[in-house]
Amino acid sequence: MADNPENLQYTKDHEWIRVEGEIGTIGITRFAQEQLGDIVHVTLPRSGSSFEASESFGEIESVKTFSELFIPVSGEVTEVNEALNDSPELVNDAPYDGGWMIRVKISNAAELDKLLSAAEYDDFIAQQSGD
Amino acid sequence: MEKAVIRKSSNHINQNEGLIFERSRPGRRGYCLPASDVESMPIESLIDAKQLRDDDLAGLPEVSEVDVVRHFTRISTWNYAVDLGMYPLGSCTMKYNPKLNERVSRFDGFAASHPYTPDEMAQGNLRLLKALEDSLAEITGLAAVSLQPAAGAQGEMTGLMTIRKCLESRGDARKYVIIPDSAHGTNPASAAICGYAVKTIKSGSDGSVDLDNLRQVIDGDVAALMLTNPSTLGMFEEKIEEVCRIVHEAGGLVYMDGANMNALVGVTRPGDMGVDVIHLNLHKTFSTPHGGGGPGAGPIAVTRELEPFLPSPRVVEITDANGETTLRLDYNRPHSVGRVRAFHGNFSVLVRALCYIVSLGPDGLREATETAVLNANYIAHHLKDDYEVAYPGKPMHEVVFNDKRQQAFGVHTLDIAKRLIDYGFHPMTVYFPLIVPGAIMIEPTESEGREELDLFIDAMKSIAREVRENPDLVKHAPHNTRIGRLDEAAAARKPVLRWRPASSAAGQK
């Protein structure tokens, strides 16, 4: 499971964030989409809505289950990946690329310090899968 | 490789069948009407043009009576039902529905009575409602029962509405409902509908409520804890009394999800454990039809303190000056949450449930519970060498495995479930509870005799062997069905919800 990109930061709820200036791009990890199975629907917020860190910003439904999406840091949504409306499978096929979900204007950069690095996240999911 | 031992089912005998639209032939019909004895008139002269449909009705099937009968009869043979065999869906309690229940529910006095019949002319039906309320109160160890909720999830909602009303009467409705991470998805949905935010607590390493975590999150803003006991892992919540004490000391109430009541009836009572409200799924525990077989019923039982808040009307007993008792529907319930269902709930389901309770009696109900627990443990014992048990401990009426051992061969829970169809069984519950990755959840219920359990165990063992020796066979199952593995992702992503005539279908993407 060492293919989690090193330039991203991670949460224990299996979201990732890529920071470029004050904008963060957010999605779910490869591990998360593998656990969920084939994604059939993603519900995302409108541009302009604001969330506090760890708040639910949307919902994701797969053939197996239904899950909430938790935002890694506080911020205002500036852009939503509209492509997921018609092609939710992008989350399965390219979780770190075409399967991104929202971009936010980060309101408190200090919150980024609490997130996991790629190596820390690798360790965390190794524990989770118990092997 | 050893050949698969499929003892129960070989090939499904059911035939392929197209859509009824495809059977259509121009001019074919299934009726023969006598000549009309009134003058025929153009429809436009009788009905305002605004009300007439102008979209294309062409393409409605033109078929004969025998075409229709064969079409639907053939489709009906594709069904799997508890009348055909074991239905091991965990958390669903798919027990057999005795035919006596069906017979009694069709008695004219029940089936033909009108819900507006005056109380004095409906004493028998009111007596039935009262008898069922009293039986369920005794079974749950609680003071009062409302039979109105139409199903489990509505029972949950009604229970939480009752809790909210009670807390409002104490002065503060509070803000949160605590729900363990192993809960049914309906629990947080019911809490949210009743205006509560949800706080999730994690399960301990043995799958039970983590008391330390509970103590951390509980405070004066917590309205209720929603708990399933036995938990969705099929394990009895041994610290239930302590859990209830912690919630009560903080001024909250305890709601129990009664989905797993089949493990408790006649042996122990939620009311005695400290539970304030419970809903019962009559279509699970009390042998009324489940799912497509008919509507459900989700009565709630509550403590004496919560009784004034139950839905209105209530069945009450009135004694007159001569000492004669009659039953009345009491609408004067100023503190009630109001109606949650028209009339008296799903009445004919209530008839079936009382029929089950009365025909088994107290000893029979206890024996059903004991047999359900014994059957699940029999399966747990015989499959533990082939499938990994998700959580250690003694299961009650259902057992949860995972697919860890099978994953080494690239086989997942879904594949095992699909392969089970080839052996003539309905698949078990898969991927629930959510806290067990690759969950395989099996609930045999008390309906199955040892022979059927052995067939099921043999099938599961045979599949485990196939996984080791020929994993592709399992990965591409089912093989013996009319159609093979469906693309579930495509079906969910791009569902085709209706048939369209070829001409208009061509114009669509």
Q: Layout of helices and strands, plus pairs?
A:
The complex is a heterodimer of chains A (131) and B (509).
Chain A: E1 9-10, E2 15-20, E3 23-28, H1 30-36, E4 39-43, E5 50-51, E6 56-62, E7 66-70, E8 75-80, H2 83-86, H3 90-93, E9 102-106, H4 118-128
Antiparallel strand pairs in A: 1-2, 2-3, 3-9, 4-6, 5-8, 6-7, 8-9
Chain B: H1 65-76, H2 99-105, H3 108-111, H4 123-140, E1 144-146, H5 152-170, E2 176-180, H6 186-193, E3 197-201, H7 211-217, E4 222-228, H8 240-249, E5 253-257, H9 270-273, E6 277-279, H10 282-285, E7 300-302, E8 314-319, E9 325-330, H11 347-383, E10 388-389, E11 399-402, H12 404-407, H13 413-422, E12 429-430, E13 440-442, H14 450-469, H15 471-475, H16 488-493, H17 502-506
Parallel strand pairs in B: 2-3, 2-4, 4-5, 5-6
Antiparallel strand pairs in B: 1-7, 6-7, 8-9, 10-11, 11-13, 12-13
Would you mind describing this structure in some detail?
The complex is a heterodimer of chains A (131) and B (509). Chain A is α+β, with helices and mostly antiparallel strands and 131 residues long. Chain A has one domain: RNA polymerase II/Efflux pump adaptor protein, barrel-sandwich hybrid domain (OB fold (Dihydrolipoamide Acetyltransferase, E2P)), CATH 2.40.50. Chain A has helices spanning 30-36, 83-86, 90-93, 118-128; strands at 9-10, 15-20, 23-28, 39-43, 50-51, 56-62, 66-70, 75-80, 102-106. In chain A, the strands form two sheets. In chain A, strands 1-2-3-9-8-5 form a six-stranded antiparallel beta sheet. Chain A has a three-stranded antiparallel beta sheet with strand order 4-6-7, with no helix packed on it. Chain B is an alpha/beta fold. Chain B has two domains: 99-358, Type I PLP-dependent aspartate aminotransferase-like (Major domain) (Aspartate Aminotransferase, domain 2, 3-Layer(aba) Sandwich), CATH 3.40.640; 362-492, Aspartate Aminotransferase, domain 1 (Alpha-Beta Complex), CATH 3.90.1150. Helix content of chain B is 35%, strand content 11%. Chain B has 17 helices and 13 strands. In chain B, strands 1-7-6-5-4-2-3 form a seven-stranded mixed beta sheet, with helices on both faces. Chain B is globular and about 75 Å long. The two termini of chain B are 47 Å apart. Residues 505-509 of chain B have low confidence and may be disordered. Chain A binds chain B through residues 35, 37-41, 61, 63-66, 88-89, 129-130, and chain B through 185, 404, 414, 430-432, 434, 437, 488-489, 492-493.
